[in-house]
Design brief:
By secondary structure, the protein is α+β, with helices and mostly antiparallel strands. It has five helices and eight strands.
């Protein structure tokens, strides 16, 4: 049987992350793909905030919203992620803030690679695949040059950070993002 205080603490933490995630999603949608940096309070609380990256203005960092299907639940989830344009698609990075485990969105995309992304003001159907070998190294090196903190995350995690390429699903047109609920 689980300890009720632990269960309550885990639910509170999940609720806190969900509300942070909802706020970032709203900011990305309101700012055509950008989210302003989180507050000092967010950093102090250890929330999964994007690290500050030099060279970006007050709009913040461009983020992509990845709609993915839960591997266990089958429910749609949305994850705001750093991204790098790759050809006609995008690469995202499973840093999970330096955690030894891969993020849930990574497991979901590997189990259900058909997904949708919101990038800028577009909503695009995509197919996810894991970058490997020289392709992964090339994309990862470029990302480390832009966000050196990711190298620290990989070292702390003790695992190779997965690089997932989101390729446009051919034959399906992009659409405007859905209005906020």
């Amino acid at each position: 049987m689980s300890d009720p205080s632990t269960t309550t603490a885990n639910k509170a933490k999940a609720s806190d992350i969900t509300s942070w995630n909802d706020r970032i999603i709203a900011e990305v949608r309101a700012n055509a793909g950008y989210a302003p940096w989180s507050s000092e309070e967010d950093f102090a609380a250890g929330r999964p905030v994007p690290p500050r990256v030099p060279g970006f203005d007050e709009r913040g960092m461009p983020l992509i919203l990845v709609h993915h299907t839960g591997a266990k639940t089958g429910r749609e989830r949305i994850s705001p992620l750093f991204y790098q344009p790759v050809g006609d698609g995008w690469a995202v990075f499973g840093t999970h803030g330096g955690s030894p485990q891969h993020p849930v969105w990574y497991h979901n995309l590997m189990a259900n690679p058909q997904a949708t992304v919101e990038v800028g003001t577009e909503r695009v159907p995509v197919v996810a695949r894991l970058a490997q070998g020289a392709e992964r190294e090339r994309i990862w090196a470029k990302e480390i040059a832009l966000v050196p903190k990711f190298a620290e995350f990989e070292a702390a995690a003790g695992r190779q950070i997965p690089v997932v390429v989101l390729e446009r699903a051919h034959g399906q047109a992009a659409t405007p993002p859905l209005p906020e609920e």
